[in-house]
Amino acid sequence: MRWTSWLIAGIFLSSFIAGCGGGSGSSTNPPSPGFTVSLSSSSINLTKGGAAQNVMVSIAVQGGFAGSVNVNLIGVTAGVTTSPSSLSIPAGSSGTFTLNAASNAAIVKQSAVLESVSGSIKIDTPLQLNVNGAANPDPFHPLGGSAMHGFYDQVRQTLFVANPALNELDVVSGLDLSVRARLPVPQAWSVDQMSDNKTLVIGTASQEIVTVDEDTLAVTRHPVGFVNSIFGLFYPVVIAMANGKVFMIGQEQGIDSSDIGDGGQFLLEWDSIANTFSLVQPVNGQVKFEVDRLSRSADHKWAVFSADQFYLYSSDTDSFTTASLAAVNPPLNTFGIRGYAINSDGTEIAIASAEQVTFIDRAFNVLGTTPIPSAFQTARTSVAFTPDNSRVMLQYDLPTEIEMLDARQFTALGFVSAAMQQNDNSSRLLGTDPAGRIFIGTSSGFLVLDGNSTPVPNQSGAFFNGTTCPLPSARSLPLNSSGQFQTSSTIGFLGTSLYVGGQPAPYVLSSSTSTLPQIQVPASSVPGVVDFECVGPDGNTLVAASAFSYGANPIGVSANLLPPIGNPTILVFGYGFSTDTGTPPSVTVGGQPVLQAQALGNFNSAIQGVAVRLQTGAPGQSASVAISSSLGSGTLPNAVTYIPGASIIPATGLLQLLYDTHRSLLYALKASEIDVFNPVTQQFQAVFQLPGFGGTDIYNVMALSPDGTRLIAASPNGYVAVLNPDNPAGVSVVPLPAVPSFQTGSLAVSKFNKALLSGFTALEVDLTTLGVRSIPGQFGDLIRASADGNFLYGISLNAASGQVFSIDPVTYASRTNEFGFEFWSDLAVSPDGSHFAGILGSPNASGTIIGLFDPNLNWNGVNEYPFPSPPDDTLVLGSVFGPQGKVLVVPLGDSIEFWDFASGTLRARLMTPEELAVFAFPEGPVAGKIALDALGQTIFAISQTGITVMNLPQPVDDIPAQSWSLGFQAAGKQINAFRKLSNRISTTTVRKAK
């Protein structure tokens, strides 16, 4: 057996040796002629604009090969040059490629190929090519809200930004671009500096203008009042002249202009010395007068605007000169004047039409013209000279670009990119500084551009050559971790460099053209959100704000006040909640896990949200909100506070609540009775029966006289019941002479104990004599009285007229102001009658629009929701002011909003233990579903199962303003459109989470 094994082994060994060509007498097969390729390095690292790098290619001979090899480097990214372009290397020799990355090369990690060819022989050798670059300053600077217009003060090196979405004027340092102050200016729209060089004048999307002392930052409001217009006017655009005059555009709110945001149908003048307002234009019965913008010279002596003619104003002579539009905009004003600017001393005026810019002097002589690369529009676009007068800047939208024109040679130079991936059409040219920086306002912040950079060349016969910024498949990473993410397409990659938070993020390109590129996102040790910036080889830039985040970082909650009973739902916003938009993070409130968490979906940025249903908390407890995910964890310290107490008193059939400050009792109206609730004992203590008339006993609205001696309830069937709360058995039923269907059921009682019922016609019921009389005139559909009965106001309901009324409580003479395409749903009057608010809501929309009015019926602002506290339920009728009139309490289905009247900002939001009685069509009379006690510290509300009583930690007027976090949000006025959650939050989704 052993011999046999060795024999078999010998046979196999002999076969192996023969196969290898070994052994005596065997024949050999020499290798075919050829070559091999080797590189001095398999990877080359280049820096944009940096030193060149060499790669040596060596050709080794095989089988007697004696030819030359042609070598080419294939697949090199744009901006990388190879010298020489190819090599011819003799057999057994070597050659060297020199690679250099231009300053505008793309940042990539690329698998290139060295292709070596000789005759029929071809060898591909991989070469890893890495192009890196230095950090790039992020041009976007967040503000929150929307940067609408601005002014750069060269002396103070400060940028002032009108931010209507936050109802404020932002003061930004020109040195480090930090926000120095946020001044409350409701609906701030435009900014200019007075000729004293220390006072700002602010145009607003309301019926006032505002001045600001730049040294003390003191804010002074100047109501404008009425002019000869059908509609009340807003004054969004202002310019200040050397003689103390300020010109203002008068805009009919809701009436479309060529420039919807800035334009208007009137030109007014404020004499700041005499403090008088007057109408300048139109005159002599003009009906087609529209001015879309105003422009002045830097010395404040000259101003221009276009309307029915082209106007030039001199402050020295306080007079206008005019020219026909055809004369200043040849040929024959074919496409209309779209924009204009005047240089620093008024010697040159640039007029933009759709296809060209015409330069004229003060005598309207044409100095020159230049074609422009694309049609120049009117809406949200600007024209301005640079501070040195050498160039004219045209701000284009979609994408936002600043076209540069030579103001001396009258030629188009190219453009500077200012494009934002989100909400690009909200961008505005805010101003420039002497160093050449250009400030562009956009949604939630502003961009800083280098106006001294070489403009990107215009493309012949095309719109601006743009770049794109494809985003990665994921929007977040844990701290100190880098990641490589797939992208959705190859569009925009060739030659484009990507920066994440200012740090280079290479595209990872494979040699296969069928493989989609990936993005290598760098690590960061700083938690929070960063921007994406894509820079093309020509310098064209696109910014995607808030596009990526590191770690887990909650930034805000939708409500800062919670009830200690019930299980309400709040929204938590932040970054790094999950790598999967459908998966919520783990959330605790006050250390307790939430009962339910539901992700809120995509937000077109790295911002994420989660709706969480809460457990009960301890009365008075402050609680932190903490989140934890695979990306990390984060905490909002003391983010919410549980109010001292809340209870639900079972009741059914409730129609209205009314608090009697004289007796400290709450009246709850039902169809045929008024139930009396004692807040101290938390018990119903009495019932006031309301007898009917003509066989019916149906009532739907009530009111109390200012002195508390009379309580009146009205019926839709044409009668009222009047009683003394101290002697309710002596109730009297009074028939009304009007047809019932023409009575809205709205009630208000004056200080003379006379109740005014709105309708057609309106009626007066004397609560002392029980006499009834008809009142001619218009008072609106809904009327309310101040607490003392000295003031009566009215509004129109559910009609596109937007009317508000001031009614004399003695004569019932009324004044009115009207706002185009606006209507109201509710009305609240301050206790002393010094101001009131019209509230607009709808059953099919979340939240409200609140018009803030003074006693002269001037609309002095509108409410603006902060980013992390969007409304997610509909209006509840019965909004009411606190006892001091500082805060307006507005109920929604799931929460109570506390609005600061002076600033139009949300102070706080309180979630309710259960759903309140929401507004629904047809509602009938506007009967208040909530009430406040005399101190304004207890809220009573009709809810699903009864009366919800909520005790606050302080009176509503003393509730501190919540410091809401800032985030990326849509820009623009909130007037004329319900602010639905749209792309941010689905109301249906939120309600499912309850």
Could you please describe the fold and organization of this structure?
The chain contains three helices and 83 strands. By secondary structure, it is an all-beta fold. Among the domains are: about 35-130, Immunoglobulin-like; about 145-380, 7 Propeller (Methylamine Dehydrogenase, Chain H), CATH 2.130.10.10; about 475-550, Immunoglobulin-like (Sandwich); about 655-670 and about 695-960, YVTN repeat-like/Quinoprotein amine dehydrogenase (Methylamine Dehydrogenase, Chain H, 7 Propeller), CATH 2.130.10. Strands 2, 4, 6, 8, 9, 40, 43 and 44 form an eight-stranded mixed sheet that branches. Strands 36, 39, 41, 42, 45 and 46 form a six-stranded mixed sheet that branches. Strands 19, 20, 21, 22 and 23 form a five-stranded antiparallel sheet that branches. The protein is flat and about 125 Å long.
The fold-level CATH name of the domain at 656-670 and 696-962 is Methylamine Dehydrogenase, Chain H
CATH superfamily of the domain at 656-670 and 696-962: YVTN repeat-like/Quinoprotein amine dehydrogenase
Note the beta-strand portion.
over 45%
Q: Look at the structure and give the mean pLDDT.
A: 88
- Count of alpha/pi helices: 3
CATH architectural label of the domain at 656-670 and 696-962: 7 Propeller
- Quick one: overall form? flat
Name of the level-1 CATH class of the domain at 656-670 and 696-962: Mainly Beta
Sheet having the most strands: 8 strands, mixed
Distance between the ends: 85 Å
Q: What integer value in Å does the Rg equal?
A: 37 Å
Task: Report the uncertain regions.
Answer: 1-27, 970-994
Helix-strand makeup class: mainly beta
Fraction of residues in H or I helices: under 10%
The overall strand count is: 83
